[in-house]
Every structure is written in C-alpha cells, then in structure tokens.
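Bench notes, afternoon.
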Amino acid sequence: MTGLILKLAPHERVLINGAVIENGDKRSRFSIITPNAHILRLRDAIHPEQANTPVRRVCYIAQLVLSGDAEPDDARPQLLRGIEQLSQVFTDPDSRANLTRATEAVIAEEHYQALRALRALLPREDRLMAARRQ
C-alpha cells in the first residue's frame, strides 16, 4: 500500500479535504491512501501576511491548492513561473535540485511534494534576506 504517512503529535491539527482534524492526547500515525487528497499540516501553514518573500509566496500558492482554496489548473502557471523566477536567484546545486523536484511535482500535480521541496529553500532565503539587510 502506498500513500502519504502522517505522524501527528498530541493535539496537532491537520487540514484534510477542507476539514480541520485535531489529534487526541497521544501521538498517532495515519496512512492517507486516497490519491489527490488535499492535506496540509496547520503547524506548517503560511498565513497570508507571512507570504512576504519570493519563496514564501510560491509556497503559499502551493498551500492554497492543498487546502482546496485554489484549483490546480489555475495555480500551475503561477507555480511554474514562481519556480522559474526563484531559479534565477538560487543557483547552487542543492537549491537547483529542490527547484527541479518542485517543478516535477507541480507538473505531476503532487502539490504536497512541491510544497515540501520549496519549503527546503526557506532557510537559505532567510540567510540571503538577512545578508541583504546588513
């Protein structure tokens, strides 16, 4: 059986197909076997006011698809354009690999994997933005 494995901490919340689900008092593990289910850990969610950097904006678009607030077909051009713009700045091999994974995931409509690859760029972006402010 394949699918997404969710490991939830006590009282952790997750959004699945538009419904907020809260875990109980103990750690638990779920196997999501339904393909194309919209799943988002709320602890990982980027709020609209936090989408204030290039990587966060692209992550936010992927997140909107996962939450069911944006249609994949409408978001695809925005995501691919955003990833292309990020590739102009993130030229190191690790970042390139994450951007390639994100692109492939968007094309395959695997938005969770796209978001995961894009989120890997957040620490690097934070360092770049901090260096720019100095």
